[in-house]
């Protein structure tokens, strides 16, 4: 699904071109952070569709752009990044892309459908740094006309009101003009739609925070849960945009949902395929384990989790580090972990059955904490007061 095609061309002409012979397509990624995020997924998945169609696919990393900045869609210039930060961001984004393309090949693509051409990842700094300013103005600059640039809406907005548009069509049309003049070849620019929820919220953010593709920044569980929570009104459109299911398969998925909406089957299909794409089958397994740890209320589900997974699942839970020493009671543990404002409150809530250690209700506040009964193999204790107030204790032995 494309938003615009430049120059204005009938979709049938583009399809004929694609079916005629393999084409080369690229998309750019600027190194503004040390990870791509869910908002980049539509572009990445679009590249994967081109790859699946037998075309040559290039991911262009903007190392040079990172030094200069890109004011498109913004009223102020980006903050300049140091060379070291740009190099680190480039390496991380390269790893993101390699991981997604490898997961697609390994877990989603079938070799019976043919062999995929490898993804090429290039950094535009490698050639821009070899061009001096005179050569740049002479070879590149001569192909742009000031009058044409001033007519572009994005440039007009920035000059007149310092409020830029969000589209990239100005950049794409400029690139089209440059390639057409220098290479004498037919080229096309494609833009993808801005994906929003039914309420108009920008897709790919949870509580206002970006969902990163790097598992160290956003856990597989958090990514999985974001898609599991997709509203019924959004899920069919997202299945079409972000998965590799055929339209017939999506129709079947939605048919099942119509008859059993409580099972949230399309949301599960969406979450499972995207978590697999970003984090592989191991990441999906970790996300499922973490989901079980929360909703099954079974201590066995907690045992299977890594300490880092547990912290990310309960990312809003306060973390307390304690030295495991003899004689610590349930009451003392609750107070040391700041679960209660006063000892009186602690004793009352514990006796009433409102305190849990690793999903197990504890009613005796004088019970002594032992490693075998109250501490998980990963040296973590998950405390809960009431239904939703979690606390994590990391034991030092």
From TrEMBL:
<keyword id="KW-0648">Protein biosynthesis</keyword>
<dbReference type="GO" id="GO:0005829">
    <property type="term" value="C:cytosol"/>
</dbReference>
<dbReference type="GO" id="GO:0005739">
    <property type="term" value="C:mitochondrion"/>
</dbReference>
<dbReference type="InterPro" id="IPR014729">
    <property type="entry name" value="Rossmann-like_a/b/a_fold"/>
</dbReference>
<dbReference type="GO" id="GO:0003723">
    <property type="term" value="F:RNA binding"/>
</dbReference>
<keyword id="KW-0547">Nucleotide-binding</keyword>
<dbReference type="InterPro" id="IPR002307">
    <property type="entry name" value="Tyr-tRNA-ligase"/>
</dbReference>
<dbReference type="InterPro" id="IPR036986">
    <property type="entry name" value="S4_RNA-bd_sf"/>
</dbReference>
<keyword id="KW-0030">Aminoacyl-tRNA synthetase</keyword>
<keyword id="KW-0436">Ligase</keyword>
<dbReference type="InterPro" id="IPR002305">
    <property type="entry name" value="aa-tRNA-synth_Ic"/>
</dbReference>
<dbReference type="GO" id="GO:0006437">
    <property type="term" value="P:tyrosyl-tRNA aminoacylation"/>
</dbReference>
<dbReference type="InterPro" id="IPR024088">
    <property type="entry name" value="Tyr-tRNA-ligase_bac-type"/>
</dbReference>
<dbReference type="InterPro" id="IPR001412">
    <property type="entry name" value="aa-tRNA-synth_I_CS"/>
</dbReference>
<keyword id="KW-0067">ATP-binding</keyword>
<comment type="similarity">
    <text>Belongs to the class-I aminoacyl-tRNA synthetase family.</text>
</comment>
<dbReference type="Pfam" id="PF00579">
    <property type="entry name" value="tRNA-synt_1b"/>
</dbReference>
<protein>
    <recommendedName>
        <fullName>tyrosine--tRNA ligase</fullName>
        <ecNumber>6.1.1.1</ecNumber>
    </recommendedName>
</protein>
<dbReference type="GO" id="GO:0004831">
    <property type="term" value="F:tyrosine-tRNA ligase activity"/>
</dbReference>
<dbReference type="GO" id="GO:0005524">
    <property type="term" value="F:ATP binding"/>
</dbReference>
